[in-house]
Write a structure and sequence with these properties.
Elements (H helix, E strand, L loop, with lengths): L10 H10 L1 E4 L3 E6 L7 H4 L15 E6 L6 H18 L8 E6 L8 H22 L8
Helix pairs in contact: 3-4
GO molecular function: ribonuclease P activity
Keywords: Endonuclease, Hydrolase, Nuclease, RNA-binding, tRNA processing
Organism: Kitasatospora paranensis
Length: 142
């Protein structure tokens, strides 16, 4: 289960991650990642009410979108449980204060746990690699 401080619940947070964040698509899922630094305005910075907010360390928060196209309720719930477990293991690797939305595509309903894990890892590698190069200086010694 995903800890309470790491859950996305508000529609506005889902929208923020999807609209402002970077996206990496794979055959089974699409991952949207919005770093804290990408958001502006005091409302966005103070929206984290978790126990770490008082310490100045905003929590990474994750949300999941699994539509009816994935399958019946039993299949959708299985996919959500698998994705929650996979994301929970990867939370420490994500930048503090990030919002992550994982959207399952219809093929995820028939995919194995290992297939979901492979696609999630590939998407996160791509997103985190892009983020690291964003802030890198372009000139050497300038």
């Amino acid at each position: 289960m995903l800890p309470s401080e790491n859950r996305l619940r508000r529609r506005q947070d889902f929208s923020t991650a999807v609209k402002r964040g970077r996206r990496a698509g794979r055959p089974l899922l699409v991952v949207h990642l919005d770093r804290e630094g990408d958001r502006t305005g005091p409302a966005d910075r103070n929206s984290d009410c978790g126990p770490h907010a008082a310490e100045g360390l905003p929590s990474v928060r994750a949300g999941f979108v699994v539509s009816k196209a994935v399958g019946p309720a039993v299949v959708r719930n299985l996919v959500k449980r698998r994705l929650r477990h996979l994301v929970r293991e990867r939370l420490p690797r994500l930048p503090a204060g990030s919002l992550i939305v994982v959207r399952a595509l219809p093929q995820a309903g028939t995919a194995s746990y290992l297939d979901l894990e492979r696609d999630l890892d590939a998407a996160l590698r791509r997103l985190l690699r892009v983020e690291r190069t964003d802030g890198a200086p372009t000139g050497a010694g300038r």
